[in-house]
Design brief:
The chain has 458 residues and is mainly α. The chain contains 17 helices and no strands. The relative contact order is 0.13.
């Protein structure tokens, strides 16, 4: 049994392992970032109010993604650690219980699509066209979220066992399908009816459902490190539920904090103009080209850290962290340079009006200053997730996005010029770096330093 389930995370050279684990995820995240940008480019071609509507819908859509991603962190950490400890029954329970939780998430957002989507959009704007666009978009992406949730869980199961190439195929399949269907369904090409904003939402959920179907197949057919059975899915143990939620809920809350931040910042920005809100949405799409690969690196790093924590290998943990910090820093510095040099060209992709360009150029250049700092925070956050201290990530997120960013943005808005609001981002990221370093120091002293070094008996 031990030989059958021997895992590369315990013996492959660390730098090669990080590249092997993270590169497919980084590529798939780049494809996902491409989808995010292309989707908004097509929506912007409908009109600027459609782009504003998607920006207003983003907080609730992000909450949905955060729920799937946050619980995925719990699955990832528990499953990888169980494999590192050679506790295969616990690994199987983590996988099956995660699938059960995923089905419940879909039911929750099906209800949200019916009862919450409309009031959520209507509470942010009085423009009837923006209201119509936003409600239509949210009802489709929330009501058909089966694909999103099961795609994300399938990816986490594959990542946790080192099968990141399969995970990359899932994300690429969903994103490429979406990119192909977007213009066809939005503008009515090749005999398809012209659906407008509804077409953008429909293309999204079709891509997600296709990827979810493929993900379930991959896990059943190729993922030999776990055994998925209907009995374990329908009869989760209390201990496994407790462990998954103890890690997952702080991660979900962390993403929820991001949704609340986006909602509140949208409210501040729309008091200046709908265009300012659209710029904020465009920024989020563009920054994903750099943040998403770093998140992909983080997704590849977490199971490596969790596995070697279970195996008590401090040397491999530290080498993985150092190498990942170097890679993430390089990616984010590249993003900083691009945002500073060609902001107008980036905004032109979204059919930017002169007013949108005026607001957007300043926004991109100011916010990009925090990119290198953010890379350190993301990688240090992987230790919180891998060692089941997701509450630390929640603390950092709360301080960055609610306790610092929103009050700073509100105070800067009182100066009467929207440009000042963007300075809230580097201010908040600097605070989060200080807190992240302090919490990592605590993790290192209490957990990493107590792992058995290489050469000592395991």
């Amino acid at each position: 049994m031990t030989e059958i389930r021997r895992n590369k995370m315990g013996y492959m050279p660390v730098k090669k392992l990080i590249i092997t684990m993270a590169l497919p995820m980084m590529i798939s995240m780049l494809v996902q970032a491409l989808y995010n940008v292309v989707d908004s480019i097509f929506v912007a071609r409908i009109e600027e109010r459609a782009l504003t509507a998607v920006s207003l819908a983003f907080p609730l859509q992000n909450l949905m993604i955060g729920l799937g991603s946050g619980m995925g962190v719990g699955i990832n950490a528990l499953l990888s650690r169980s494999l590192g400890e050679k506790n295969y029954d616990k690994a199987d329970e983590a996988a099956c219980t995660g699938l059960m939780i995923t089905a419940l998430h879909f039911i929750v957002f099906l209800l949200i699509s019916i009862f919450v989507a409309g009031p959520f959009i209507n509470g942010q704007t009085d423009d009837p066209v923006i209201r119509s666009y936003g409600t239509t978009y949210l009802k489709i992406v929330c009501g058909c979220s089966f694909g999103l949730f099961f795609q994300m869980t399938s990816e986490r199961l594959l990542q946790s066992t080192g099968r990141t190439v399969h995970s990359m195929i899932l994300q690429a399949t969903g994103a490429i399908t979406n990119i192909i269907l977007d213009p066809i369904m939005i503008f009515g090409l090749f005999g398809c009816p012209k659906m407008g904003i509804a077409g953008a939402a429909a293309a999204t959920v079709i891509g997600q459902c296709l990827a979810a179907t493929l993900g379930i197949f991959f896990n059943l057919k190729f993922n030999k490190d776990i055994r998925i059975t209907m009995g374990k899915i329908l009869r989760p143990t209390a201990d496994t539920l407790r462990q998954l939620y103890s890690v997952g809920i702080p991660s979900v809350l962390m993403m929820a904090v991001g949704s609340v931040m986006s909602y509140l910042l949208n409210r501040i920005l729309i008091s200046f103009s709908a265009t300012a809100t659209a710029v904020f949405g465009v920024y989020f799409k563009l920054q994903s080209f750099f943040f998403m690969p770093v998140f992909g690196l983080n997704s590849g790093l977490v199971p490596v850290l969790a596995f070697n924590y279970g195996a008590r290998r401090k040397d491999r943990i530290m080498e993985a962290l150092r190498f990942s910090l170097m890679l993430a820093g390089g990616i984010m510095c590249t993003g900083l340079v691009i945002f500073e040099l060609i902001p107008r060209e980036l905004l032109a992709l979204f059919n930017a009006s002169p007013e949108m360009e005026r607001i957007g150029v300043a926004a991109l250049r100011i916010i990009a200053v925090n990119f290198p700092v953010a890379s350190v925070c993301i990688i240090l956050g992987s230790t919180f997730q891998a060692f089941s201290r997701s509450i630390y990530s929640l603390i950092v997120s709360l301080c960055r996005q609610l306790l610092v960013l929103i009050p700073a943005a509100w105070l800067l808005a009182q100066l009467g010029e929207v440009t000042y609001i963007w300075f809230a981002f580097p201010i908040a990221e600097t605070v989060s770096l200080v807190i992240s370093l302090l919490l990592y120091r605590k993790i290192k002293r209490e957990i990493i330093d107590k792992c058995v070094p290489q050469g000592e008996p395991l």
